[in-house]
Structure formats: structure tokens, C-alpha cells
TrEMBL record:
The keyword Lyase applies. InterPro entries: Mo_CF_biosynth-C_arc (IPR023047), MoaC (IPR023045), MoaC_sf (IPR036522), Mopterin_CF_biosynth-C_dom (IPR002820). The active site is at D141. Residues 1-41 are annotated as: Disordered. It is an enzyme of class 4 (lyase). Its EC number is 4.6.1.17. One of its GO terms (biological process) is Mo-molybdopterin cofactor biosynthetic process. It comes from Halonotius pteroides. Residues 30-169 form the Molybdopterin cofactor biosynthesis C (MoaC) domain. CDD domains: MoaC_A (cd01419). Belongs to the MoaC family. The keyword Lyase applies. This is Probable cyclic pyranopterin monophosphate synthase. Keywords: Lyase, Molybdenum cofactor biosynthesis.
Length: 172
């Protein structure tokens, strides 16, 4: 096996001009990856949910009425990874070989990192992004009663910073 190579997370000038999910007439299409060789692939994505400090304290104390927030968010993240192909129209169904989730808790936020691994013909960055997005949405859902203000809004709650941190591919 060759050493893992870091792929750029932003398109290069050459690839940015060519849309791969549309044909010459502009019709959406799934990319044909049939002729590509299988590779070991890994992608890592991250994001942050900002919360009131009292909500973070309740999460850490496992004192949220709906249950264990981080355990439930972890399950939601893994489930989202496995079902990405069902929610992103041109995404291939890929064999997921591993999912790692890691939460980092601060006074007023929780960061989630999701790493996804597969062996196949296409990458797994969309799966990592879906895992982060869903995991953070689960945190919001489980804590929304504590986060609501008197008008039913969420002035202190937001999700941001969702991005692909790394994308790796090794030939097999």
C-alpha cells in the first residue's frame, strides 16, 4: 500500500470549472465511478454548536430531560453517516468500515468531530459532513427546551464551522 495522501478540500482551478454532477445539457446525473480502482479512504469533518453555559452544564451533568445528549447525538451521527446516500441525491451508497465521533465540551459550546472510513471507488467526506450536521442537530433537539427564550426563539444557539478537515486516499 502507498502512503495516505492528503487531497485538497477545495476544488482546484482545473476542477472548479467542470461540474461533474451534470451532463452537457445541464441535467443532474450521478458520476460513474465504475472504472475507478478501490482505495482506502478517510474523511474527517467538524462543527460546533453554541449553547448557553447552563445548558452545557446540564449536558455534562446528564441532567437534560430528554436523556443523555452526547450518547444520543453519537448514535444520530453514526446513523446519518450510514444513510447519507439516501438524503444527498447524487451520493453513492458506500460501504462504511468505521465511524469515530469525538465531542469536545467547552463552557458555551460543544464541538463534534466525525471521522469516516471506507474502502471503495469514491470518497466519504459527504458522510462525515452528514454525521457532524446530524449529530449537532440532535444536540439542539435534545436541549431546545433549555435554549428557548421567552418568545420561543434561540438567540444564543447556533451551529457553525462545519467543514471537512481532512480527506485521505491510499491505493490498495
Amino acid at each position: 500500500m502507498s502512503e495516505p495522501t492528503e487531497e485538497p478540500t477545495q476544488p482546484t482551478t482545473d476542477t472548479a470549472d467542470k461540474l461533474t454532477h451534470t451532463d452537457d445539457s445541464g441535467t443532474a446525473q450521478m458520476v460513474d465511478v465504475g472504472d475507478k480502482p478501490d482505495s482506502d479512504r478517510r474523511a474527517v469533518a467538524e462543527g460546533t454548536i453554541h449553547l448557553q453555559p447552563s445548558t452545557v452544564e446540564a449536558i455534562e451533568a446528564n441532567d437534560v430531560a430528554k436523556g443523555d445528549v452526547l450518547a444520543t447525538a453519537r448514535v444520530g451521527a453514526v446513523q446519518a453517516v450510514k444513510h447519507t446516500w439516501e438524503s444527498i441525491p447524487m451520493c453513492h451508497q458506500i460501504p462504511i468500515t468505521n465511524v469515530d465521533t469525538e465531542f469536545s465540551v467547552a463552557d458555551d459550546r460543544i464541538e463534534l468531530t466525525v471521522a469516516v472510513e471506507t474502502t471503495g471507488k469514491t470518497g466519504c467526506e459527504m458522510e462525515a459532513l452528514e454525521g457532524v450536521t446530524t449529530g449537532l442537530n440532535v444536540v439542539w433537539d435534545m436541549c431546545k427546551a433549555a435554549e428557548k427564550d421567552g418568545d420561543g426563539g434561540y438567540p444564543d444557539t447556533r451551529i457553525d464551522g462545519i467543514c471537512v478537515v481532512t480527506k485521505q486516499k491510499k491505493s490498495i
